[in-house]
Structures are given as structure tokens and as C-alpha cells.
């Protein structure tokens, strides 16, 4: 396992730690924040419309996830990660959010006695900050998945939970024979919520599993029902979805009128091996 896989976002050289900073051989320096993460996000890598989740969104998602609503999904991903990397190695969570899944996966490897070095990267500096505060033996950085500050062929496993798919970058950072675990919403995910809010709800389209440069190893369907007992939890869940950004006033009012809701969570955990 490599002691450090983070790369300088300016010149691409390997970063090392000196006191409270990450420094490359060309002396580009990046300070470690008080919370523990490092900001490796260059302004030229930030999209015009997407800057990552803000503090309110990150906190709502953290609070919702910590209530255990998505724990069956986390358990399934943890199980798959341990099964596919039995001898350990370097693991990258690309688009780690506030670290709910990252910390769970790290704990699962520890419980199984499998030695790993883990890294988490998210474009939201707030999410990286929240993740680092978990103190879960994971190195967190703010960066874009489309410009990963990670050395070539340095990762044995890459995990991506609902993050944008950056295939070229994912293939670049994975070692020959490396594993990728990807989680996507399946066709009936949050169906009851969409029924309650929209006049003409639609089921999610699940595309083909083939991805360039990867062998598909299999899919595990993870389906369970969540009993949302408060308007706060309903709003938190909805704010975690892409529907949140394109819902009109009428639909928002319908959502606000729901005192509770039983809603299905429906995911697929996909596993791949990079073609060497």
C-alpha cells in the first residue's frame, strides 16, 4: 500500500505531509484545515453551475443518514467492499459527501481485519469538512471527481455513491485489476414520494451496465421500506434527491402537507473490475 496517493492539483506530483500542510516537490503547498481535510480544489476545476452542496444541505443529509434510514444500503456496500478486496489495499471514495458511507466502509474493513488506506474526495468543501470531523482514519480532500488529485494507478478500489460518473479519471487512478463499486437508484426508488408530490410520477430509467474499460462483475438489488415519521425527515430526504431542484411551488406545498410517509428505497450496487 502507498503511504500517500494524493497528487498536487497544480503540477501532478505526489504530495507529502509537512507539519500542517501538504507539499509537493515543486513546493506547492496546501494547508490542512482545522477540521482535518485539505482543499485541493482549483478554481478552474469548479463548474459554473455546480459548486457542491452547501452547509444546510450537507447537514440535512447527515442528520437524515445518521438516523439509520439508509443503513441497509451502507451494509450492502460494506459487505461487497470487504468481499472484493480481501487482502486490503488503497480505497478511494470518489464523491464521498459528508462521509457516512466512507466511515462505514472503513469500519467494515477494520472489523474484518483487512488493512486499508482510505481516502475520500468531494467537490463540496463543507462536505469534506463534515467528513473529516468524523475522525474515522480516512484522509479527506475537497476536489472534483473529474479532476481527481490522485496519482495514476494508485487505488485498489474506487467507490462511487451517487456521484457523477467520471470514467476517464476513475480508470486512470485504478491499478490494473482494480475494483469499482458504484451505487445507483433503481427504477422504484422513492416511488411513493413521487406519487405524493407529482401529478404524473415516473419510474427511474436504469441504463445498461456496460462501462468502457471495465468488466461487469454483477449487481445486487437493495430494496427496503422507510417509515418517515416527521415532516423534517421527509424534507431532508427530498433535499437529497435531484427532484429537489426542479420541483415547483404546487409540488412543494404537497410535500409540506405530508405528516408522515412510508416510502420504498430501491438501489443497485454494481461491481466492476478494470480491464488491465
Helical content class: 25-40%
Mean of residue pLDDT?
Answer: 93
Morphology: globular
Strand content: 25-35%
Report how far the terminal alpha carbons are from each other: 19 Å
Q: How are helices and strands ordered from N to C?
A: EEEEHHEHEHEEHEHEHHE
| Strand line-up across the major sheet | 4-7-6-5-8-9-11-10
Number of helices: 8
Q: Mind telling me which CATH architecture of the domain at 36-187 and 197-222 and 266-274 this is? A: 3-Layer(aba) Sandwich
Blueprint of the fold:
Elements: E1 16-18, E2 21-23, E3 29-31, E4 38-39, H1 55-66, H2 71-84, E5 89-94, H3 100-111, E6 116-122, H4 125-132, E7 138-142, E8 155-161, H5 167-173, E9 174-185, H6 191-197, E10 214-228, H7 231-239, H8 249-256, E11 261-274
Parallel strand pairs: 4-7, 5-6, 5-8, 6-7, 8-9
Antiparallel strand pairs: 1-2, 2-3, 9-11, 10-11
Helix pairs in contact: 1-7, 2-3
Description:
With about 280 residues, the chain is α/β, with parallel strands linked by helices. It has a domain at about 35-185 and about 195-220 and about 265-275: 3-Layer(aba) Sandwich (Rossmann fold), CATH 3.40.50. About 30% of the residues lie in helices and about 30% in strands. The chain has helices at about 55-65, 70-85, 100-110, 125-130, 165-175, 190-195, 230-240, 250-255; strands at about 15-20, 20-25, 30, 40, 90-95, 115-120, 140, 155-160, 175-185, 215-230, 260-275. The strands form two sheets. Strands 4-7-6-5-8-9-11-10 form an eight-stranded mixed β-sheet, with helices on both faces. A three-stranded antiparallel β-sheet has the order 1-2-3, with no helix packed on it. A hairpin with a 2-residue loop joins strand 1 and strand 2 (about 20-25). The longest helix is centred in the first third of the chain and has 14 residues, at about 70-85. The chain starts with 15 loop residues before the first strand and ends with a strand. About 40% of the residues are buried. The mean pLDDT is about 95.
Amino acid at each position: 500500500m502507498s503511504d500517500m496517493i494524493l497528487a498536487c492539483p497544480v503540477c501532478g506530483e505526489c504530495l507529502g505531509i509537512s507539519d500542517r500542510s501538504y507539499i509537493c516537490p515543486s513546493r506547492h503547498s496546501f494547508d490542512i484545515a482545522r477540521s482535518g481535510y485539505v482543499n485541493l480544489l482549483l478554481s478552474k476545476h469548479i463548474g459554473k453551475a455546480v459548486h457542491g452542496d452547501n452547509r444546510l444541505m450537507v447537514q440535512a443529509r447527515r442528520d437524515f443518514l445518521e438516523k439509520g434510514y439508509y443503513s441497509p444500503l451502507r451494509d450492502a456496500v460494506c459487505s461487497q467492499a470487504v468481499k472484493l478486496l480481501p487482502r486490503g489495499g488503497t480505497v478511494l471514495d470518489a464523491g464521498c459527501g459528508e462521509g457516512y458511507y466512507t466511515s462505514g466502509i472503513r469500519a467494515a474493513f477494520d472489523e474484518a481485519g483487512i488493512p486499508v488506506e482510505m481516502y475520500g474526495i468531494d467537490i463540496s468543501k463543507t462536505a469534506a469538512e463534515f467528513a473529516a470531523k468524523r475522525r474515522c482514519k480516512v484522509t479527506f480532500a475537497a476536489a472534483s471527481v473529474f479532476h481527481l488529485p490522485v496519482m495514476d494507478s494508485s487505488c485498489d478500489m474506487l467507490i462511487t455513491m451517487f456521484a457523477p460518473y467520471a470514467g476517464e479519471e476513475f480508470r486512470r487512478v485504478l491499478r490494473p485489476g482494480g475494483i469499482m463499486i458504484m451505487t445507483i437508484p433503481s427504477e422504484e426508488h422513492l416511488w411513493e414520494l413521487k406519487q405524493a408530490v407529482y401529478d404524473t410520477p415516473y419510474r427511474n430509467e436504469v441504463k445498461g451496465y456496460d462501462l468502457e474499460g471495465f468488466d461487469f462483475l454483477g449487481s445486487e438489488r437493495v430494496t427496503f421500506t422507510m417509515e418517515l415519521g416527521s415532516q423534517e425527515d421527509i424534507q431532508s430526504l427530498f433535499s437529497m434527491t435531484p427532484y429537489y431542484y426542479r420541483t415547483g411551488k404546487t409540488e412543494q406545498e404537497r410535500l409540506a402537507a405530508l405528516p408522515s410517509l412510508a416510502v420504498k428505497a430501491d438501489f443497485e450496487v454494481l461491481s466492476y473490475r478494470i480491464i488491465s
